């Protein structure tokens, strides 16, 4: 299927939301270099939005969130009681939730944000939860359940990984080379497992590799397959990546992924990402 270009307003909104996820001016500049390319008009529009966001709280909350009745701690989604919000991305929110029926445990519940349940977003969301459902590896966060709200917002429930990024863990614990390698090897095996299932993560970075303690032993876990690419269709909903759409984290992505056309990305790209985690 031929890629269809995003409308100007949609593209500006998407890039703006992604830029807000970047924490330093350098990361934002690098992202805009890739996302806008030679389109000076688009770059100027995004920079204006960023300046307004900085000077005024009018854009503190994106337009699609205003006046929206977001879930609060104590609310239920399916059989799961929300405890606290623990993450937020361009089109989804992650909550810590408590499963009270059948099994009693705490889980992570990821749901499409209000106003973002477009066909394109839902298709990508489905790819992520189907990709995770395929995984059977101790170093990849597991999927437990999935469903949709009465309003049609899809969600899925996965293993709650309480930990810190692998680089932060190594720095704070002053890990030896031996300990670092003991963490490194399982992630190599986890990424290989994903590749054997036909899944390319496309965003391997320290923030997506968390280290938690299980039985007193540090265990690394790969999370967030939100921009994963499946080598074979996983759902009957087509995922369209528009020409020039920028997917991933600039500081870690491979050269072929950094190209705005995004062609030629295969398993080697994840290997490049993983190497960059230890170079930065």
Query: How many domains, in number, for the residues?
Result: 3
Largest sheet, described in full? 6 strands, antiparallel
Number of strands: 11
Strand percentage, roughly?
A: 15-25%
Tally of individual helices: 8
CATH class of the largest domain, named Mainly Alpha
Distance between the termini: 37 Å
CATH homology superfamily of the largest domain: Transferase(Phosphotransferase) domain 1
Question: What is the gyration radius calculated from CA atoms?
Answer: 19 Å
H and E order: HHHEEEEHEEEHHEEEEHH
What structural class results from the helix and strand content?
alpha+beta
Remind me, CATH topology of the largest domain? Transferase(Phosphotransferase), domain 1
Report the helical percentage. Answer: 25-40%
Please state the second-level CATH architecture of the largest domain: Orthogonal Bundle
In short:
This protein is 35% helix and 20% strand. By secondary structure, it is α+β, with helices and mostly antiparallel strands.
Any descriptors?
280 residues; alpha+beta; Phosphorylase Kinase, domain 1; Transferase(Phosphotransferase), domain 1; 3 domains; 6-stranded antiparallel β-sheet; 3-stranded antiparallel β-sheet; disordered N terminus
List the helices and strands and how they pair.
Blueprint lengths: L7 H13 L4 H12 L3 H16 L20 E2 L2 E9 L3 E8 L5 E8 L6 H16 L8 E6 L5 E6 L4 E2 H7 L4 H20 L2 E2 L8 E6 L2 E6 L6 E2 L24 H4 L8 H11 L3
Antiparallel strand pairs: 1-2, 2-3, 3-4, 4-6, 5-6, 7-9, 8-11, 9-10
Helix pairs in contact: 1-3
């Amino acid at each position: 299927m031929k890629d269809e270009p995003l409308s100007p307003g949609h593209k500006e909104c998407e890039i703006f939301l992604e830029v807000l996820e970047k924490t330093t001016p350098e990361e934002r500049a690098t992202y805009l270099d890739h996302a806008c390319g030679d389109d000076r008009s688009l770059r100027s529009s995004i920079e204006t939005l960023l300046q307004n966001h900085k000077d005024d709280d009018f854009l503190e909350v994106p337009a699609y969130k205003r006046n929206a009745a977001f879930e609060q701690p104590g609310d239920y989604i399916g059989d799961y009681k929300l405890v606290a919000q623990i993450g937020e991305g361009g089109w989804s929110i992650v909550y810590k939730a408590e499963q009270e029926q059948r099994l009693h445990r705490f889980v992570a519940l990821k749901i499409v944000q209000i106003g973002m349940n477009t066909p394109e977003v839902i298709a990508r969301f489905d790819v992520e939860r189907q990709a995770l459902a395929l995984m059977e590896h101790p170093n990849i966060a597991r999927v437990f359940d999935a469903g949709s709200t009465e309003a049609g917002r899809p969600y899925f429930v996965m293993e709650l990984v309480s930990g810190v990024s692998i680089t932060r863990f190594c720095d704070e614990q002053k890990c030896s080379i031996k300990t670092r390698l003991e963490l490194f090897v399982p992630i190599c095996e986890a990424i290989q497992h994903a590749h054997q299932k036909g899944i390319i993560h496309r965003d391997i970075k320290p923030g997506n590799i968390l280290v938690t303690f299980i039985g007193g032993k540090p265990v690394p876990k790969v999370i967030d397959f939100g921009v994963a690419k499946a080598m074979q269709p996983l759902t009957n909903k087509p995922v369209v990546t528009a020409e020039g759409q920028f997917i991933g984290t600039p500081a870690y992505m491979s050269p072929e992924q950094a190209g705005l056309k995004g062609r030629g990305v295969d398993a080697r790209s994840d290997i490049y990402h993983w190497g960059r985690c230890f170079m930065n």
